[in-house]
């Protein structure tokens, strides 16, 4: 029923072994559907050090991406027993990247909900499809024309509340303020000189977003908006 192909990519796992030993089960994700969206998302998560199980009914696609992912399988996840055999119920995150087969998308999402996977992301091909998924109880519905795989990968990791990348390797990120930026005025925290990012906005629980200045004192639990080079803002967000 389930055919595992190339369970481990030896060279990648050696390169990421140190990172993986520090990861909990929360940094494993199942990506069901390895089309353009799913494969882009899966590869980005791999680059960020996550363990990725890629699943598709198309043997050709699984073979194409098997060497790029931690695990891969040819399987039909519309069958809840297949999900159980793959151990997806033990994952804390799953992404349904199935393309034009709306029925399969809905069935797989339902199976994941039934398996009580805590964080389910599902691709919708239309707003109507998205509404159905939301009514089922899917936690995060993605419309690909608005959300690209790379952006969603940043959000799935849980370090960022929002991520927008612009041209010239420049990004804007919304994240919970890390401890190194709290308790003192931003001008004294030296966030810009140490980490290469600029805090441009701040939001406290129950309050609106406000512009940040050098005199702004960020408090623990505040949500902040930072800008800078993509790598810099990614590194800074990992501190939260």
TrEMBL record:
Classification via PROSITE patterns: RCK_C, RCK_N
Domain RCK N-terminal: 26-148
Pfam families with a match to the protein in the record: TrkA_C, TrkA_N
Ranges where the RCK C-terminal domain occurs: 158-240
SUPFAM superfamilies: NAD(P)-binding Rossmann-fold domains (SSF51735), TrkA C-terminal domain-like (SSF116726)
Protein name per Swiss-Prot or TrEMBL: TrkA family potassium uptake protein
Species annotation: Streptomyces ossamyceticus
């Amino acid at each position: 029923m389930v055919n595992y192909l190339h369970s481990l990519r030896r060279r990648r796992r050696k390169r990421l072994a140190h990172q993986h030993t520090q990861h909990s089960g929360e940094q494993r994700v199942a990506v069901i559907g390895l089309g353009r969206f799913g494969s882009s998302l899966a590869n980005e998560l791999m680059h960020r050090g996550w363990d990725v199980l890629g699943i598709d009914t198309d043997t050709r696609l699984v073979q194409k991406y098997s060497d790029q992912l931690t695990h891969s399988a040819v399987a039909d996840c519309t069958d809840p027993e297949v999900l159980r055999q793959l151990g997806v119920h033990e994952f804390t995150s799953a992404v349904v990247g199935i393309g034009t087969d709306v029925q399969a998308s809905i069935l797989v999402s339902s199976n994941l909900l039934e398996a009580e996977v805590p964080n389910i992301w599902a691709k919708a091909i239309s707003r109507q499809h998205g509404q159905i998924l939301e009514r089922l109880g899917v936690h995060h519905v993605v419309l690909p024309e608005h959300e690209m795989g790379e952006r969603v990968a940043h959000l799935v990791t849980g370090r960022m509340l929002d991520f927008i990348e612009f041209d010239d390797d420049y990004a804007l990120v919304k994240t919970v303020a890390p401890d190194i930026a709290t308790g003192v005025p931003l001008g004294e925290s030296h966030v810009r000189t140490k980490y290469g990012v600029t805090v441009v906005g701040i939001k406290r629980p129950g309050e609106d977003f406000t512009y940040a200045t050098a005199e702004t004192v960020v408090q623990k639990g505040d949500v902040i908006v930072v800008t800078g080079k993509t790598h810099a803002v990614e590194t800074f967000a990992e501190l939260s």
